[in-house]
Design a protein that fits this description.
Length: about 850
């Protein structure tokens, strides 16, 4: 609600004017329209007038001259307006306590007459001085404090002084009061000494108000306040209480400057002279003495003086609340946390309007945090957080002293650090949020420390979530890959990583352009890493680009470029990824620049090869093979480096998909020995097992071609058998490894490898001629994937196994099951290239079906042997 402005009419433009009475074009001269009734209007020129028609003109002129002379004589004989009397009447209204009536008289009656020639400068200066006093009295009477009124007061006094007015002490005090209200501290310091003893009480009050305002200013005007304290202390008619007030303020200043021992010594010396002071003033000095002892570490002396202070101070005084607060802090220093809590709660409950209220909330939050650790039955973490939340809410609604708000922020962030150090990340997150809320409330922008706290705690929460699976695979950068987590955990971790990245990004923006270069680089790096780990590839790319492009002389620049390339690879931007990887490799191979790249050049070989293999351009596949070959020859970090193991897997995978199974087996067997990640191990086991199975099929085809020496044939048969046995072993390990993994953690590709491992176990046993084992394996696979189209493979192979083993009755049953299952599936399910049923399997089913039909037609006994 807007405040009323006293004397707003003071700012009007002057007395209201009457109507001018001027004739306008809308009112034509009536004489031009009046015509004589007998006038015919004949002729074109003006009609000539006769003398008998014009004799009135000289007579009218003479009469007008006599009238004008009379008016002048009346004006000359009229007495001068009584402006002094009007002003005195207004003064009387003011002295009777009616400032609004005084202003009305001055504005409505005196002001229109100020331009009269009889009004002297002395009258005008009295008018302006009286208007200033009336406006000031009106503000006081209404209990308001409006800047526009203070401006008008000073303007009126300036006009009076310009006309030679000599201010009375009351007027000088009023002028200084308006200067103080407008924050004109230098002018206050210059003018306050001009207030004489006739306004001694007002002068003392102004000194106190001015000193307090200067100390509370932002930034504080301690220089002026100190000068005024000296001046105030030298004023005549100074009371004992005023002298005690001066000592108290000077003591506070010295304590704020760190002169604690000096403050104690001075207070001890002056206390004997304060016997005549009021209990309130003596209590304030004892309060200061107690605070000084507390600052010096003399806890026992502090408690004694503070106890004396509270006995003298009134319960309703702000100083009493301050003494309780100081007493609580001393008790806390003594380890008496529960007693301290009682003091703080008393301030919070009974002194919400005092300056000690917000500091007491902060102190209560701190002591509750301590009690929650010492004795959870007395206080809890929730109690402490609740008090800090109340502090933030109070600041939001009521505001507060900057020092109190800064202390609250410091305390909240200290609690954040304590809980982070203990690994209590959920509690740390609450304090980080409070710090952010407090910053938003009080600042135009967010406090960078609150942003950094938020980033830190969300990163810790995400890493804690991911770290619970640390034994299940660690990425190349030393942190757990999120793919190792189950979907629900992975989604939560990603949200927290992204949130950590967002706060780190905002922290970097908040300190950009400052002298915190290292902190800026750390936050940009953190933002990029967190976005990367959280799966926000677009934001990760932007942050890595910024880091690599704007941060100089940081050893992480090469890592940023490598991760940037990885991010491009993950987002399918293969050309940009290849550009970054190739640049890292070029620098790594240049002796003059290799030092700036470090290990990231070597690490670029395999992912660059992967990029070339993944992109749709087949022309660079040869370059991929060259890169992998260089790693496998030990040209990129030797055979013990991470790159070598990655290259083995990559090269084995390439050979597998190219159908070069002996080479795939060679590389994947070695990769299997080196790999540590369980997920990667399961993939390698499957690809290796499948390579053995497919190579055994190639041997079958070779054997089927005939014209092979017996010794070679035996060797091939032995190799085929060993391949199938090794495949069975690896398929079993693949199956067991994936089954041990929670199903929510398995990717779609993991599910394909797991399913096919079940079915290929039966195929290998079938190809070995171990039909009983094959049937058992197929039955397990069918039961595991009862509704999956792949079950047809098991049913067909069970049928084929019964045919091969001569169990025709069982074969008939199996054939019917296979046919019924096949007929209830839609045709398009067989378009899935990942199904473990190839063309040869369909051909085998056809062959076995014809064989069964032939056997049944010939009437052979179903139990006959094969």
């Amino acid at each position: 609600m807007s405040r009323p402005v006293i004397g707003v009419h003071v700012f009007d433009g002057g007395p209201l004017g009457g109507r001018s009475g001027a004739v306008t074009s809308a009112e034509p001269n009536q004489a031009e329209h009046d015509a004589s009734p007998g006038d015919t209007g004949e002729g074109t020129g003006p009609r000539r007038r006769r003398w008998r028609e014009l004799w009135q003109v000289p007579t009218l002129g003479a009469a007008s001259a006599l009238l004008l002379t009379g008016i002048v004589m009346v004006q000359l004989s009229r007495p001068a307006p009584d402006v002094p009397g009007i002003i005195e009447r207004a003064r009387g209204e003011l002295e009777r306590g009616a400032p609004e009536l005084a202003l009305a008289v001055l504005n409505d009656e005196a002001r229109p007459l100020l331009s009269h020639g009889s009004v002297t400068p002395e009258i005008r200066r009295s008018f302006h001085a009286l208007r200033a006093m009336a406006i000031a009295a009106g503000q006081t009477q209404l209990g308001i404090d409006v800047e526009a009124n203070h401006e008008q007061i000073l303007e009126e006094f300036d006009k009076a002084l310009g006309l030679g007015h000599e201010m009375e002490d009351r007027e000088a005090a009023t002028e200084v009061s308006s200067m103080l209200a407008m924050g004109k501290y230098d002018e206050v310091a210059e003018r306050i000494g001009s207030i004489g003893d006739d306004a001694a009480a007002a002068r003392a009050s102004l000194y106190k108000r001015s000193i307090s305002a200067m100390l509370a200013a932002s930034p504080p005007r301690e220089d002026l306040a100190t000068d005024l304290l000296v001046s105030f202390g030298e004023q005549p008619l100074l009371t004992v209480d005023d002298g005690a007030w001066v000592i108290a303020r000077r003591t506070e200043l010295r304590m704020a400057q760190g002169y604690i021992e000096e403050a104690i010594a001075r207070l001890l010396r002056v206390m004997p002279r304060m016997e005549g002071a009021s209990a309130t003033r003596r209590g304030e000095l004892l309060l200061l003495l107690g605070e000084a002892y507390a600052e010096s570490g003399s806890v026992a002396d502090a408690r004694k003086q503070l106890d004396r202070a509270t006995s003298l101070l009134s319960e309703g005084d702000d100083a009493f609340a301050r003494a309780l607060l100081a007493e609580g802090r001393v008790l806390e220093q003594s380890g008496e946390s529960d007693e301290a809590r009682l003091r703080f709660e008393r301030v919070v409950a009974s002194h919400a309007s005092s300056p000690s209220y917000l500091p007491a909330l902060v102190a209560l939050g701190e002591v509750l945090s301590v009690l929650a650790e010492i004795d959870p039955a007395v206080a809890s973490h929730a109690d402490a957080v609740g008090v800090y939340a109340r502090f933030v809410d109070e600041v939001r609604v009521q505001g507060g002293e900057p020092a109190a708000i800064a202390e609250g922020r410091r305390s909240i962030l200290a609690r954040f650090d304590e809980h982070m150090a203990r690994g209590a990340y959920e509690q740390s997150a609450e304090y980080a949020q409070l710090a952010e809320d407090l910053a938003v409330v009080r600042d135009a922008g967010i406090d960078p420390r609150a942003l950094l706290a938020q980033s830190t705690v969300y990163r810790a929460l995400a890493e804690q979530l991911a770290g619970s699976h640390e034994d299940e695979g660690v990425g190349a950068d030393g942190y757990v890959e999120l793919a190792e987590l189950d979907p629900a955990t992975r989604a939560q971790a990603q949200r927290w990583f992204v949130r950590a990245g967002d706060y780190a990004r905002r922290h970097a923006d908040a300190i950009a352009g400052s002298d915190q270069d290292r902190a800026y680089a750390d936050s940009v790096w953190t933002a990029a890493s967190m976005f990367d780990r959280g799966g926000d590839t677009g934001e990760a790319i932007a942050a890595y680009v910024e880091f690599a492009g704007t941060i100089d002389s940081d050893p992480r620049v090469a890592a940023a470029r490598f991760r940037l390339a990885r991010a491009y690879q993950a987002s399918g931007e293969y050309e940009l990824a290849a550009e970054q990887f190739e640049a890292l490799l070029d620098e790594a191979l240049d002796p003059e620049r290799s030092g700036s790249v470090g290990p990231w050049g070597v690490r670029s070989y395999v992912p660059l090869a992967e990029v070339y293999l993944e992109d749709p351009d087949p022309s660079n596949d040869e370059r991929a093979a060259e890169l992998l070959g260089a790693v496998l020859r030990g040209e990129a970090g030797g055979v013990d480096g991470d790159a070598f193991g990655q290259a083995l897997t990559a090269m084995g995978t390439v050979h597998y998909y190219e159908g070069r199974h002996p080479q795939a087996i060679e590389h994947l067997e070695e990769a299997l020995v080196r790999e540590q990640s369980e997920r990667s191990l399961n993939k390698i086991r499957f690809l290796l097992a499948d390579s053995y199975r497919l190579e055994s099929a190639a041997i079958d085809r070779t054997l089927g071609e005939g014209a092979i020496a017996p010794s070679v044939e035996r060797e091939l048969l032995d190799t085929r058998s060993s391949h199938l046995l090794r495949a069975i072993e690896l398929y079993g390990q693949t199956r067991d490894g994936y089954e041990a993994m929670h199903e929510r953690r398995r990717t779609a590709m993991d599910e394909v490898y797991l399913r096919n491992a079940y079915f290929y176990l039966g195929d290998c046993a079938f190809d070995l001629g171990d039909f009983e084992r094959a049937i058992r394996s197929y039955q397990i696979a069918k039961d595991r994937y009862e509704d999956d189209p792949a079950s047809l493979v098991a049913l067909v192979q069970i049928f084929n196994a019964y045919i091969e083993s001569g169990q025709l009755e069982q074969a008939v049953t199996a054939s019917e099951k296979a046919r019924r299952f096949y007929e209830r599936l839609p045709e398009d399910v067989w378009d899935d290239p990942t199904l473990p049923m190839s063309r040869s399997d369909w051909e085998r089913w056809l062959d076995s079906s014809f064989e069964l039909a032939s056997l049944r037609a010939s009437g052979m006994d179903a139990s006959a042997g094969g």
